[in-house]
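Technical annex B. To support the medicinal chemistry partners, we prepared a structural model of the target in complex with magnesium ion, based solely on the information shown next.
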Amino acid sequence: MIRVGLGRDLHRLVEGRSFLVGGLRIEAERGELGHSDGDVLAHAVTDALLGAAALGDIGALFPPSDPQWKDADSLVLLGRAWDLVRCEGWELVNLDCVVCCEKPRLLPHRDAVRASLAGVLGVGPDRVFVKGKTGEGLGPVGEGLAVEALALCLLERKERGEP
Ligand code: MG
């Protein structure tokens, strides 16, 4: 059996916060505002994986109203969600992501972000890809006010009797 999952997240960018992408801290003038550490890509990936397995979403598992998730490391949240999904027998075929922000550029950091996510998910980096896009100056992303991430995953589970 195979399942696809889609995740999307957006965070406001403000001064005085770290800019985190898939667990990687990238030098930038502004970073994501959030109850947790604000890692927009980690959140989108978490939702994609949970959605594919129909196991809820990041807001249900780690509600922002719960003080224990204040400033939480989003890679830890991703790892916990992935543990739940794996416990149901799912394996990751691949994960493809887009990060939309005006600056900084993602390309120089792409392989490091891929390795970071792949490490948490326990797969080779060849199963994880990440692309950066700008907002062409349009909308909150284009005006540098926000960063958005999209993630699409494919999960596979061997059913009883399958080779
Ligand atoms: Mg978020």
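Notes passed to the chemistry partners:
The chain has five helices and seven strands.
The mean pLDDT is 95.
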